[in-house]
Structures are given as C-alpha cells and as structure tokens.
Amino acid sequence: MVVIFLYFALFLGVHFLSKQFKRPGAARLFQLIACFILLFGFFGFRDITVLNDTSHYYGFYYQKAHVFNYRNEPITTFHLLDKFEYGFQVLIHFLVKYISKEPYTIILFSSFVLTIGELWFISKYSHDIAKVCFYMLIAGLFFTHYCIIRQALALILFYLAFVCFEKGKILKYYLLALCACLFHLSAVFLLFLPIIVRIKPTKRNAIIAIGVSLLLAVSLFEVLALLGLKDHPYYQAAIQKEALSLVGLADCALMIFTLSVCLIVRKRSNAPSPSSTFFWICIIGLCISLIAPVLYPIARINEYLWPLILIHLLRYIDPDAMKTPYTQRIGGIRNLMRVLVIAVFLIKLIGINTFRPEWLHIDSYQFYDFGKKDHTYNLYPQE
Length: 383
What we know:
It is a single chain. By secondary structure, the protein is an all-alpha fold. It has 18 helices and two strands. Strands 1-2 form a two-stranded antiparallel ribbon. Helix 15 packs parallel to helix 17 (302-317). It is globular and about 65 Å long.
C-alpha cells in the first residue's frame, strides 16, 4: 500500500511542478504529458495479478489467439458462447488477427485508449489536470475503470457523448450511446439520461425519485420475479446470499457523503443551484446507490455517473482547479471539506485493501514481466 500512496504523491508533485511554468499553456501541456506517463506506465504495464478482472481478459485473449479457425474467420463473426457484447468481440478479433497474438495486447491497448480518454475528459472540465487525477485515484475511480475493460471502453464513448449532449448535439449523443452499448450492456441506461434530465429539478421531484428507489430496493426480488428474471445469475446470487452487499453499502455511504458535502458547501457559500443535468446525475447516482446493497450489479450504472459527480464535487470544494467553478466564496469551509473528502476517500481505499483486498488486487502491485516465459494465474496457464 505504501507504493500506492507514493504513486498518489507523484500527481501532487506534478501539480506543484507545473506552477513553475510562467505560461498556462506550457503548464497544462506538462501536466497532460506527465499524467499520461504516470497513468499509462502504472496501469498499462501492470501484472495480470493486479486489478481483479485483468487475468480474465488476458486469458480470454490468449484462448482466442490460439484458435486457428478464429484467426482466419471474418472479424465481424459473432460468437454467442463468448458472452461478450458484439463490439468487444469485434475489437478482440481485430487485435488478434491484425495486431498481435500476444495476450497482453488487450491490457496495453485498453490502458492506452482509457488513459487518453480520461485525460481528454478531465481536461474539458479542469485547469489542474494532475490534481483532478489525484482525486480520481484516491476515490478509486481509476482503479475500477482500468479493471472493467469492456465497460471502460463504453465509458470513453459516454465521455464523448456527454460533451456532445452539453453542446445540444442530441443525435450525436444517441449514436455514441448506442456504440457504447456494443461494448457493455449497462450503457443502455445512457439512452434514457437525456429524457430524465429534462424533468424539472425540484426538491419534490428528487424526493419522489428517492422514495421510488427505496420502495424498489425493499421489493426488488418480487419485481424481478414478476418480470421472469428469477433464473438470472445475478438474481440467484443475491437471493442466496441472504444479506446486504457489503460493497454496495460502502458505495451507498460514499455517495451519501459526497452529495452531503456538495449540499453543505452550496448552502454555506450561497452558490447557485447546479444545472438540471448535474442535479439529476447526482439524484440518479444516489437512487442507484440505494438499490445497490440489495443487488450490487446495478451499481455498474454509477460507473458512468461517478466521474461527473466528482467533477460536481470539485467545483464546490476545489474550485481553483476547475474551469467552471460554482463559487469562489467559500472561505475556511472549502479547505475543511477538501481535507475531509480526501481523508474519507483514503480511509475507504485503505479499508478495502485491508479487509477486502480481493476487490481490487492492488495491495501487492508489480509490473508485468515481459521476459518471463510462463504466466499462470487463476484458470489461465500460459505455457
């Protein structure tokens, strides 16, 4: 864990070093290049034991690369038994057939694309890229994003779509959201987001939404049974557990804390209300988090929303880092809340690595050994 904290500190180092540049453009370019090297170097060259889904994607790529018929059939071929979305299957097929049969290709490729996408998105909303990267890391968002490769690719498409949405380019938004669905089915939710954010952002409507989510949480299994989903693996796993999801409870607590900080700072600083879009993104995130302890897989929807909620939070507690802060008139409360947020995020990360290290697999970080002939982990022996 010491290595991880030292890694976090490097981003703060980039933040302070960039202040030595007299021209803002040069400082920004320095931050982009330095953060790219730090992110891609750390995640792009991780061992397959780091982040709990890495070995699964590595193993899937290995299996496909060693099937002769697969390498020679059209890349548009769909394999139902692979249980992956069509867009991701085409991507893997393309990489295997035209780029490399080396299974680590999927880790390098996804890390490269995700690093560029994350930095592009962050640069759209912030002046201080390194500082926002620091927050994304301690909040655990980057660790999750580089882990869930299929959904991470869908997330990058959502970043592009969201920027289009804010510019009023609704058709482009829907086209990109549909493309995201080809990489992860959870992106279907994105098709409804433009409709939801058009609802008037009032306290009454927020209470109704939260109330409905609580009602759904206590009757979720009955609702799913009525929909004929009793045989679904997620339903079976949740109902057999006979207890609330611990990670779902942690996610819910973190969401409530984050939104409470936003509300406290907004009231103390007399900041204007957020836009309808960010208002409903926060409410939807909260509603999903209230259901997550009952059926945790639904929290996958929040992977699209958490980066935006963090942007929303930073506009309150660290406005100097953001392009469009909600307010600068916060005084001491801003510093207090910033320290509190950092402390809570770090406590959560330490808690996960202490009591549930299998959730992330970052407690014993190591780089991938390209010189090693055999790589064996879980069910995927490489011989």
